Structures are given as C-alpha cells and as structure tokens.
C-alpha cells in the first residue's frame, strides 16, 4: 500500500520526509507538498513536521555522495516547485544513497536525467531574470523591481545582484509568491510587503524625479536599434516570451 | 539634463550605431571592487530587438559627424542626414543610469571621425576613463578603436576598456579600396598587431605582479560586412582564420549588408539582407573556434561557398561519410563533437554518462541530441542503425524533408545568432 507524505514545501521539509522514509523503512511512497488537513481523504498519510536536525542528517549524507555542484543542482530542482516532481527528486535521492559511487553524471538513469532537465529549466529562468529584471529608482534612491517567475528562482539571484549592485540599495520582489529580497548596501534580507496598505496611485509619486526620463530614453533606445529590414517576430518572441513583457520597461 | 535634446541625440546616435553587430559582453573578468558599481564577465543579453538581435550593451556613436565618405556607411560625409554629438559627460550619465536599472551590461562606444583619428580616439578614451576612475564602474566597456590613432592612446584605451575592436569593414583589401577609397587596410591591421603584443605583455606582467592593471581582458574583435562585395565564403573564412591565428582575435563578426544607400558600386536598395548566409558564416566560425574544425574542412577550392540549405557541420559530415558511423559508446569526445546534431553540452554528457553503462537511442534523445540528424552518423547500444547504405544526397534529402521548418529554402526565418 502506498504511503503519502505531506510536507511544507521547504527544502528542509523535503529532507525531513526522506529521513522518515528511511527511518520507517517505507517502500511504496509518494511525496506531496501542501497543507495538512484533518479531513485529508488519503489513507495512510503521514504529516511531515520539518525538523532541522533530521534534515541536516540527510543533508550530511547527501554531501558525502554528491559534489557541491550536485547538491546545488538538487536544491535548484526543488526550487522549480513543479507539481508531481517531488517523487522524482525522491527517486534521485534514493538512487544517490543506494549507489556506492557518485552517480550525479549518470545521465542514462531516468531520475538523474529528469533532475538534469528540471535544473536546465530553472537555470534558464534564473538567467532570464538576471537579464529581464528592470529596476526603478524610488525617491529614497532604492532601486525596486518586481518579478513573476514560473519557478522560485529568487534565492538563486541574490548573489548575482549583490555582486553587481554593491553600492545601491535594491529590492527584488516576487509578486507571485509574495516575498522579496532587500539589500541595504551591507546585508540582504528576505522581506514581505503589505501591498494592501499601499496606494497604487502613489506608485509614480514614489519614483525619483529622473526615473521616467530614463525609462523613456530606454524605450527610445530600444526602438532606435531595431533594423526594420531584418524584422523577425518569431525569433524575437522566442527570446523574449510574452509572459515577461509586463515587467519589461521597453515592452510596456 | 535637457530631456528633449538628450532624447534626440540618443535616437540619432543609437540609430547610426545599430549596424555594428558586435554584441558580446562576455570574456572579461572584471570584479566589483570596493563596493563600487557593476562587474563584467557574464555576457547577459538584456533584451532583443524586434529583428531578433540581442541587446546587451548601450551601443552608440559618440558622433555621426565623419570626415570619410565610405559607400556602405549611413554616416558618410556626403549623406544628407541629421548630425549630432554627445559630450563625454552625457555618455557617462547614460551608461551609469542604464546600468543601475539593469538595462545593460555596459557600453559599446564607437564614433564617426571628428577631425582626425587622435582627436576622436582621445574622447572615447576619456569616457572610459571617467567611468572607471570617477564612478568606480566595473561593467563592460567595448571601445571601437579609430584606425590611425596613436599607440599611446591605444595603450590608454586598453587600461580602461574590456574589449577593443577595429572594423576591417570589408573582407579583402580590394573590397575596401572599392567602397572606402579614403581608408587604408594597413591602418586597421597595424594597431591590431600593437594591441596583440600589448595584451600578451600585460598578461605576462599580471602573472608576475598581482597588482599589475588588467589590460583589455576581453581581447580584440573585428567586423566585416558581407554581401556588399563579391568575396566567396572561402575568402571570408580564410581571412577570419588568419586573424584568429595572427592577431589572437576573440571574435570576428559578420554583418550581412543592409542596403541603406543608393550607389552603383553597391547592391540595389531593394535587395534582401543576406541573413541566411550570415547565419551560415557564424555557424562555420563557431565550428572553427569551438569544435576544432580547420577552415579547409569547412570551405575549400572544391566548396568555396557554404551550403545555404544545411548547416556547415552537416555539410562537412556529408562530404566525409567515410568517417562514419561512429560508436557513441566508444568514440573520443573530439569525434563525437563532429556528429551533426550533437552540441558541446550533449557530447560532454554522453562521455560522462557512458561511464555508468552503454547508451541507447532513448537515452541519447533524453540527453538532448537531435536524433533526426545524428542517427545517420552514429551507432549506439541498439541493433538499429539508420543509415543503411544511403548516399550523401539521400541523407540530405531525408533530413531536409523531416526538418522542413528549420531548413526551408528561401525561408524568411533567420536562425538565431550565436
């Protein structure tokens, strides 16, 4: 009979679930993220309570079997938050623990291959965010950007933007997941903003006086560099998918 | 800043610079230092124009005023257009403001020739110097060197810029003579030689003294216009090969001629931009730089022109069927890299994966190789072998029939630039 484990969606939660699977020697299992409901219709359901000591033990085990890069890739695959992929991540983790050698490059294996595919998608979106994030300067000289990525890539972006914009305050806010990162020239911290109390009509008033000028200059520049004789809409759309347009200054 | 005036200048001077195709912002290794602004190494395309080309740098001319009268150039002296010039400070402000908003990776600054080479070059260098020294800007800077500028200015440029380039304009000296009679190819080649030596010297110095300044860390590149003069692909690629070897250039860019001026030395105003040919040249160039192909394997006296309907790697494979089929589970990486439909990443994955067991078609497909092309050239852990005893012509027909969308003849679809 299949046992379903429900966890909180965090990486630590996933690792805690793995700990329980090994502790209880569960064989036929499914992992799902979600709210634990007392009225859960599943039989044989275990609620996984995230516990750092347990997660750490699994993490330590993984570190012995994977390179630092391999572990990073597993974490990135988890950030994809794809429906139904937790079972593949579990399959991958089990394959790693069951093998005597490091198997992270065994692309003939279906779990390794699947993780590799997911990581490719996550990296593509991370790269797109590095490219498509558009900051707007606020009155207090903080640079503010909103994003809505398909995958939860914000944690993978922090280092890039810290290294690049070391001398300016910035906020990158994921409006789909309602959290952001704030850098104050010294440290970064995760934040959440209460948009309910903010007046959207005030958004423009919050901009620095030159902000609109630079947005216009950028839009003008974007139009000036186009060569109409070479128009190629299909290629353009492949590079800049429409779902990103509402956050791209040059496409608004 | 006067918004109206700066907008007009930007429109004019971006419009005039857009035919310069260099877009790369990678290959440098400049780190953000002392909590300054920016870093350079990643090569990020921040957006794409509606014609599908990447926008990575703020690419502008300092001025479109020019003392020369080159037939192919919109900024030519005799062309009746609006002229403008940025001040040094205006370029600096635009660069910083765009960079802070994450619009760009840095600046690509070129220029028409104001008065003479040194006068113009000096201003380009001033922009880069100001960005580096006054604003602690560590983003990417690509300066277009002015042919004929003094060695002193070239040396200073290298201290502030990540990349320097001098456009060869035409693939051959004869082509240049025809369309730019005032220009001398030697004026372009001489500074390339100077920079090459300087780059080698400075990187030796850097190895000995950690504190030695970095000098043009992303090296040199150049650009040639193709399709304006009658050179063959063999002439063009041999020229590129010669510059890669002789001057250690990082890139040669190929710019399909866009007819902008009526001149009886040039293709007519309504002629098509040779986009497919341009794409094939980039693919061939890629094979030379990343796949260790020799230029003669790609084009030679028997095949002076690249096939327009198939990519140059497939073209080479069809001319060399005796090399194939290769066993994917045994062949060296270098050999796998030569299989049509297998790229660098897939080839590396194959070599990693086969340590764990032999690979079959399903696994190869999952790894990401283009089976529709590769299957005629490889065997794997499977009894099927698709090539049977097909001739090169038959294989080509099969592949074309299967992938008509990509290789469709006369298609207006331009393939992605690398």
TrEMBL record, chain B:
Its cofactor is [4Fe-4S] cluster. Pfam families: Radical_SAM. InterPro entries: Aldolase_TIM, DNA_rSAM_put, Endo/Exo/Phosphatase_dom_1, rSAM, rSAM_sf, RuvA_2-like. GO terms for molecular function: catalytic activity; iron-sulfur cluster binding; metal ion binding. It comes from the Bacteria. PANTHER family: ENDONUCLEASE/EXONUCLEASE/PHOSPHATASE FAMILY DOMAIN-CONTAINING PROTEIN 1 (PTHR21180), TYPE II SECRETION SYSTEM PROTEIN K (PTHR21180:SF9). This is Putative DNA modification/repair radical SAM protein. It comes from Mucilaginibacter ginkgonis.
């Amino acid at each position: 009979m299949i046992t379903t484990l429900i966890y909180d969606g965090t990486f630590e939660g996933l690792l805690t679930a793995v700990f329980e699977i090994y502790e209880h020697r569960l064989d036929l299992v499914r992992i799902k993220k979600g709210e634990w409901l007392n009225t859960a219709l599943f039989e044989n359901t275990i609620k996984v309570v995230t516990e750092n000591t347990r997660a750490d033990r699994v993490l330590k085990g993984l570190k012995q079997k994977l390179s630092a890069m391999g572990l990073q890739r597993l974490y990135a695959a988890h950030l994809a938050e794809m429906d139904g992929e937790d079972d593949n991540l579990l399959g991958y983790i089990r394959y790693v623990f069951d093998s005597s050698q490091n198997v992270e490059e065994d692309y003939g294996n279906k779990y390794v291959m699947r993780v590799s595919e997911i990581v490719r998608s996550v990296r593509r979106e991370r790269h797109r965010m590095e490219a498509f994030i558009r900051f707007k300067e606020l009155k207090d000289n903080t640079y503010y950007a909103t994003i809505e990525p398909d995958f939860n890539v914000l944690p993978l972006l922090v280092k890039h933007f810290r290294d690049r914009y070391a001398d300016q305050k910035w906020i990158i806010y994921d409006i789909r997941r309602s959290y952001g990162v704030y850098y104050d020239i010294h440290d970064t911290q995760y934040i959440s903003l209460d948009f309910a109390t903010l007046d959207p009509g005030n958004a423009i008033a919050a901009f620095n006086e030159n902000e609109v000028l630079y947005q216009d200059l950028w839009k003008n520049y974007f139009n000036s560099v186009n060569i109409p004789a070479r128009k190629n809409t299909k290629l353009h759309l492949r590079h800049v998918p429409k779902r990103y347009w509402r956050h791209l200054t040059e496409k608004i | 800043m006067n918004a109206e005036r700066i907008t007009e200048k930007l429109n004019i001077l971006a419009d005039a610079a857009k035919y310069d195709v260099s877009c790369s912002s990678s290959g440098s290794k400049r780190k953000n230092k002392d909590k300054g602004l920016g870093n350079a190494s990643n090569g990020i395309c921040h957006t794409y124009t509606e014609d599908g080309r990447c926008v990575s740098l703020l690419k502008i001319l300092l001025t479109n005023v020019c003392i020369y009268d080159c037939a192919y150039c919109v900024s030519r002296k005799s062309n009746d257009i609006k002229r403008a010039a940025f001040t040094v400070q205006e370029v600096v402000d635009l660069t910083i403001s765009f960079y802070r908003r994450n619009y760009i990776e840095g600046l690509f600054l070129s220029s028409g020739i104001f008065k003479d080479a040194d006068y113009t070059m000096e201003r380009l260098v001033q922009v880069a110097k100001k960005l580096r020294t006054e604003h602690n800007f560590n983003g990417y800077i690509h300066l277009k060197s002015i042919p004929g500028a003094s060695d002193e200015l070239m040396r200073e440029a290298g201290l502030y810029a990540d990349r320097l380039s001098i456009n060869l304009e035409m693939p051959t000296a004869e082509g240049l003579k025809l369309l730019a009679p005032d220009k001398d190819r030697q004026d372009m080649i001489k500074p390339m030689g100077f920079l090459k030596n300087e780059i080698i010297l400075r990187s030796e110095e850097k190895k000995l003294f950690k504190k030695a300044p970095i000098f043009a860390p992303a090296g040199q590149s150049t650009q040639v216009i193709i399709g304006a003069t009658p050179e063959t692909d063999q002439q063009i690629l041999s020229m590129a090969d010669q510059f890669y070897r002789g001057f250690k250039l990082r890139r040669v860019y190929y710019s399909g001629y866009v007819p902008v001026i009526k001149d009886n030395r040039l293709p007519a105003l309504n002629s098509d931009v040779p986009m497919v040919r341009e794409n094939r040249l980039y693919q061939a160039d890629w094979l030379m730089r990343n796949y260790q192909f020799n230029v003669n394997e790609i084009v030679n006296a028997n095949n002076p022109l690249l096939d327009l309907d198939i990519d140059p790697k497939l073209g080479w494979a069809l001319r060399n069927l005796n090399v194939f089929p290769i066993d994917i589970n045994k062949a060296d990486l270098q050999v796998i890299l030569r299989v049509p439909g297998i790229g660098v990443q897939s080839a590396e994955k194959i070599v990693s994966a086969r340590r764990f067991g032999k690979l079959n078609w399903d696994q190869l497909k999952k790894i990401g190789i283009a089976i529709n092309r590769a299957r005629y050239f490889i065997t794997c852990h499977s009894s099927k072998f698709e090539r049977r005893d097909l001739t090169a012509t038959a294989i080509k027909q099969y592949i074309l029939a299967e992938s008509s969308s990509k290789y469709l003849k006369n298609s207006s679809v331009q393939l992605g630039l690398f």
